[in-house]
C-alpha cells in the first residue's frame, strides 16, 4: 500500500513537471505510459529501443514466463506469412486472384475477382463473420460475397480462415502445412516461441489463436521495425513488408493485417470508437510513423520506426486509449 502511494505521488510530481514545461527523461515518459496502462486495466508494458529491452513493467511476470492471449493480435502473422510466401514464389504477388487457388470460386461473379490483398485488408466483400464463431478453413471458403471487392471494409475472422485454406493448398505440393511453413520461414529464424496456438480440426486459428509472452511478441515487432532484417541478416523482403502498412481506399486505417496511423473504420464496422477492446476513433498520433497489431482486451504491439521503438502492451479490457498511451510514451503528456 505504501509503495503504491509513493508511486502515485511520484507520477503526480512528473505530471506537474511536464505541465511546467520541464523536458522529461525517457524513463519518466515510459513510467507515465505504464501508469496510464495500469490504471486502465493494463497487465504489463514492455519497450524495446533498438534491439534492447529498455523498460519492463507488469503486475505479473509476463515478460519472462507468462504467455498472454493476443486475440486478434494473431491476425498479423498472416500478413507477414503472405509477404514471405510472395518472396518464396508461392504467390505471384498481393494482387494474385484467390480463385487461382480456390478454383471453385472461378464462376462466382464476385468471388472470382477477389485478390489476396483484398482478402487480408478485409475489403474482399466476403461475409467476415463473428469473432466468437470461427469456421474451419473448408467452411470459410463457402461464405458468400456481399459486396464488390475493394469497396467495403468488414472486420471478422472469416477472411483469415480463407487465407488458411489458400495457404494449405499452395503448400501441399511442398509437403508443408500452414503451421510448419510459418514456423520454418518466420518464427524459427527470429527464435520466436508461440506458447499456445489454438487449432480447429488440426489447423491453426489464424484470426485469434496465439498466446505468447511479451518478450516473444516483441521479437516479431523487432523484425517489423527493422523491415525484415534480423541480427544483421535480411530474412524477409523489406519492400514486401512495407506493403502490409498501406491502407485501402475502403479503410485507410487498416493495411494488410495491421492497424495504421490514420482516421478510418474500426472493428465495429462504423467509426473507430473508444470502447472496450476496440481501436481509437482517430489516428494514433499526429505525424508519426506508427502501426500496430491489436487484439481484444487491448492487446497491442506498436512499431515506431522513427523512434526505433517496439512496444508491447497487454491488457484486460477497460477504457484504454491508444492516443493517450502513445502521447505519454513519447511526450509525457
Distance between the termini: 26 Å
Main sheet record: 6 strands, antiparallel
CATH architecture: 3-Layer(aba) Sandwich
One letter per element, helices H and strands E, the order comes to HHEEEHHHHHEEEEHEEHEEEEH
> Remind me, CATH topology?
Beta-lactamase
Average pLDDT, rounded to a whole number, is 90
Task: Give, in spatial order, the strands making up the sheet with the most strands.
Answer: 2-1-13-12-11-10
The stretches of 5 or more residues where confidence is low (pLDDT under 50) are 1-17, 270-277
Task: Describe what you observe in this structure.
Helix content is 31%, strand content 15%. It has 333 residues and is α+β, with helices and mostly antiparallel strands. The chain has a single domain (2-331), classed as Beta-lactamase (3-Layer(aba) Sandwich), CATH 3.40.710. Strand 1 (42-49) and strand 2 (52-58) form a beta hairpin. Helix 3 packs across helix 7 (178-187). The protein is globular and about 65 Å long. The two termini are 26 Å apart. Mean pLDDT is 90; it is low at 1-17 and 270-277.
Amino acid at each position: 500500500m505504501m509503495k503504491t502511494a509513493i508511486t502515485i505521488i511520484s507520477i503526480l510530481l512528473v505530471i506537474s513537471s511536464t505541465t511546467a514545461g520541464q523536458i522529461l527523461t525517457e524513463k519518466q515518459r515510459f513510467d507515465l505510459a505504464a501508469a496510464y496502462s495500469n490504471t486502465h486495466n493494463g497487465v504489463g508494458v514492455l519497450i524495446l529501443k533498438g534491439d534492447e529491452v529498455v523498460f519492463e513493467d507488469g503486475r505479473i511476470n509476463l515478460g519472462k514466463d507468462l504467455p498472454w492471449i493476443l486475440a486478434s493480435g494473431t491476425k498479423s502473422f498472416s500478413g507477414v506469412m503472405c509477404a514471405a510466401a510472395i518472396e518464396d514464389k508461392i504467390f505471384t504477388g498481393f494482387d494474385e486472384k484467390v480463385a487461382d487457388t480456390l478454383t471453385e470460386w472461378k464462376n462466382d461473379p464476385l468471388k472470382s475477382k477477389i485478390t489476396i490483398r483484398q482478402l487480408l485488408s478485409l475489403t474482399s466483400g466476403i461475409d467476415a463473420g463473428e469473432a466468437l464463431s470461427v469456421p474451419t478453413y473448408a467452411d470459410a471458403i463457402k461464405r458468400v460475397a456481399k459486396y464488390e471487392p475493394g469497396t467495403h471494409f468488414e472486420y471478422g475472422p472469416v477472411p483469415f480462415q480463407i487465407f488458411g485454406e489458400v495457404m494449405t493448398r499452395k503448400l501441399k505440393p511442398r509437403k508443408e502445412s500452414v503451421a510448419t511453413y510459418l514456423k520454418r520461414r518466420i518464427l524459427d529464424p527470429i527464435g520466436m516461441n508461440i506458447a499456445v496456438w489454438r487449432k480447429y480440426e488440426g489447423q491453426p486459428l489464424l484470426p485469434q489463436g496465439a498466446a505468447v509472452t511479451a518478450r516473444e511478441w516483441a521479437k516479431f515487432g523487432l523484425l517489423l521495425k527493422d523491415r525484415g532484417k534480423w541480427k544483421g541478416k535480411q530474412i524477409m523482403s523489406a519492400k514486401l513488408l512495407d506493403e502490409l502498412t498501406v491502407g485501402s481506399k475502403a479503410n485507410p486505417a487498416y493495411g494488410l493485417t495491421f492497424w495504421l496511423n490514420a482516421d478510418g473504420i474500426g472493428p465495429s464496422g462504423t467509426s473507430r470508437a473508444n470502447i472496450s477492446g476496440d481501436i481509437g476513433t482517430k489516428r494514433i498520433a499526429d505525424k508519426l510513423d506508427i502501426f500496430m497489431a491489436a487484439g481484444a482486451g487491448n492487446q497491442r504491439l506498436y512499431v515506431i520506426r522513427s523512434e526505433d521503438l517496439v512496444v508491447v502492451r497487454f491488457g484486460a479490457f477497460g477504457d484504454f486509449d491508444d492516443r493517450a498511451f502513445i502521447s505519454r510514451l513519447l511526450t509525457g503528456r
